[in-house]
Amino acid sequence: MSVKSAHTARFVAAGVVAALAVATAAPAGAAAPTVDPGVSKTEIVIGTTTPLTGPASPGYKYVAPAAQAYFDYVNANGGINGRKIKYVVADDAYNPALTKKATNQLILRDKIFAMFGALGTPSHSAVVTDLNRRGIPDVFVNTGFSGFDDAKRYPTTFPYFPSYTVEAKSMAFYIQGDAALNAKTKCLFYQDGEFGDNAMAGFTAAGLSFTTTTSYSSGQQVAPFTAQVTKLKSAGCDLVVFFGVTSATAQLLGTAAKAGFRPTWMITSVGSDPSVLGASLGAATNTL
Fold first, then answer.
1. Residues 126-155: pLDDT tens digits?
2. Under CATH, what is the fold of the domain 3-159?
3. Which residues, 6 or more positions from 87, have their beta carbon under 8 angstroms from its beta carbon?
4. pLDDT at 153
5. What is the architecture of the domain spanning 164-282?
6. Which of 77, 127, 163, 278 could form a disulfide with 103, with the two C-beta atoms 3.0–4.6 Å apart?
7. CA 185, 213, 174 angle in degrees (round to 5)?
8. How many C-beta atoms lie closer than 10 Å to residue 108's C-beta?
């Protein structure tokens, strides 16, 4: 298991436990509150959508089990105001169509009180409007897409990542402050959609330009990135900034190694877990 992913999941799970404790507490002498879906005298039902399978699952498939381990600990120690946490995990394979189906099941069949830690920018984008329309708490969204941090548009959604735009600005600041890095031929490789759009917006705002850019669509990482690596190599890139998921990072590094392309790499936080990346890279290249 990824130590980084597990630690982050437990930290966020602790946060949601605190939030649920506040949400389900009633002051002494207060009138009995209206019962919310997913909340009974004995349990609180929360749900999540996450890629347990599919091309984006390496690394991310460990997040939900780590959160479950923490909730098991809370339940073993009395729960929240006497209520046990029931955590319902739905595999969406990082596929927005499956996210919609899974989210509907969580709401209509499992009667969740809240969505917790739903993972993925394209997948969560497919359901965030419906969650807010229904008034369902949508807490600690597991993505850095800045669009979810809009209290007016999404009043029940609470992100916890710094946005990808902020991360890109920070990376640009680091590059611009390092003479050796800044002198390199800089190129950008990103995932299509809001994920990559956020990154480009951050770099643009920071005044960092790239000699060339290329991209991939979600799921494309099941095959080598031959065309993209060829483009980067032909452009003479010797610093490649990458914004994508961990499995795509592994495919990129594996494809580049086979092509003899060895630039300096700078990789987004959500695609650079060392323990997960090492295992994935071995599978992608048949070498460690």
1. 999 999 999 999 999 999 999 999 999 999
2. Rossmann fold (3.40.50)
3. 46, 47, 48, 64, 67, 68, 71, 116
4. 97
5. 3-Layer(aba) Sandwich (3.40)
6. 127
7. 50
8. 10
